[in-house]
Design brief:
Helix content is 37%, strand content 12%. The protein is an alpha/beta fold. A 7-stranded parallel sheet has the order 3-4-5-6-7-8-9, with helices on both faces. A two-stranded antiparallel sheet has the order 1-2. The chain binds iron/sulfur cluster.
Amino acid sequence: MTTILDTVSDGRPRHPEKAHRPDTKVLRKPDWIRVKAPGSQVYQETRKIVRDNNLVTVCEEAGCPNIGECWSKKHATMMILGDTCTRACAFCNVKTGLPGAVDIAEPNNVADAVAKLGLNHVVITSVDRDDLDDGGAGHFADVIGAIRNRSPATTIEVLTPDFLRKDGALEVVVAAKPDVFNHNLETVPSLYLTVRPGARYFHSLRILQQVKELDPSMFTKSGLMVGLGEKRLEVLQVMDDMRAADIDFLTIGQYLQPTRKHHQLDRFVTPDEFKSFETNAYSKGFLLVSSSPLTRSSHHAGDDFGRLRQAREAKLSQSA
Ligand code: SF4
């Protein structure tokens, strides 16, 4: 278990909807899930830039196990639109509730942090904002525009919510021309009702397909967590669904249960099984696959973007 953050903050539970659930049993982590402790000097510098610019990061809010490694290389994934999510997914450690007003200074603050961190590639994600008419799409576009103005050479990856029932929202984000559009399917369809109750599997899949229809040059990416109780064949079926939607890049990582109140960890998937998922995914035609216990959507995203471009060029030159 990575973090225990189900304690009271600002006088309220972090996850009020989960507070009355029974505690689940804790499984001991296997040897292959070991991470570097945070605390290097560069880690502290990254932390200071994040704080000085009044930013929220998914690295901290989700209790990501890779934070020691990523922040020691100044790789932080910005989470825009506040720190409070309107959904209540059973796997997620981001605070839930009614969010505050959108911070109009945020696009400039994010752009400033990206410049100070000297990022070649940045990942921007957000909480889900079902309370906003456009689901926060306009704000995503503003953040992309501010980064482009300030750091034109930086490539931009967005990891968006599903914009369910927000007509026209997806088009606004695609028109802002991020380099990579990521939306995570997270799990197999049979687990949606328990793991992602506010989302719809085919809607999420369709979002990614629509991105490709709107802009065929945009890279699309999606991710799955395993260890939630899914069957191997279900994972292979999701890969086929993703390829039918022309998704370029697949990430698969181990689910780590944030607290005893979250969705119960079913099992730790072995490194060999992750390797087998990778082999299967490449055989199905993904341009790039990252499949390992500590794979996360934004882990090594900059290096992976370079590999993604190379893979597309190689494929195009083969078919020429
Ligand atoms: S993997 Fe992503 S979320 Fe985790 S610490 Fe690295 S950049 Fe942050």
